[in-house]
Specification:
Layout (H helix, E strand, L loop, with lengths): L1 H11 L3 H21 L2 H18 L1 H11 L6 H10 L3 E3 L6 E3 L4 E2 L7 E2 L2 H27 L6
Antiparallel strand pairs: 1-2, 3-4
Helix pairs in contact: 1-2, 2-3, 2-4, 3-4, 3-6, 4-5
Length: 149
């Protein structure tokens, strides 16, 4: 379905890539749930890839589906997107888009990414509760071997 949405989007521009991103995130959660049998753990494990797909748009959606389908119908589109679009992400503090390699990830939850330590410090009061919840999920995933330290 995601592949079809992407291909249809190339023809009639009806937000197919956005639909594909939603489907990709759903697939990630279901794949992780099948492995962990725990909703919170499946969300935690899926979140970094979900974040990259949401923030990376077409390039990341193409990458996700081209790796999961048996045909090569997305290969040329992915190669084109790879050469034309940078790997980008969104800072959780200032919500600006930056090259993905420049981000620092929160040491607590290892989910949220920030453009700088200052941005992370300014966002801490908003992130603190989520960080605690995500950190507990991370600890559970480590304890049961779903994440290797």
């Amino acid at each position: 379905m995601g592949t079809n949405d992407i291909l249809r989007d190339k023809i009639d521009r009806r937000m197919g890539t956005d639909n594909a991103c939603i489907l990709a995130c759903s697939v990630l959660i279901l794949e992780n749930y099948a492995e962990t049998n725990d909703v919170n753990a499946s969300l935690y494990l899926a979140y970094p890839k979900k974040r990259d797909i949401d923030d990376g748009g077409e390039r990341e959606a193409l990458r996700f589906f081209s790796k999961r389908i048996s045909c090569t119908c997305l290969d040329s589109l992915y190669a084109q997107a790879k050469s034309e679009q940078r790997k980008v992400g969104r800072c959780y503090g200032c919500e600006m888009t930056f090259k993905r390699s420049t981000f620092e990830v929160c040491n607590g939850c290892r989910i949220c990414q920030y453009c700088s330590k200052d941005c992370q410090r300014q966002h801490w009061s908003l992130h603190k509760g989520d960080c605690d919840s995500w950190s507990k999920c991370r600890a559970w995933c480590i304890q049961y071997g779903f994440i290797l330290e």
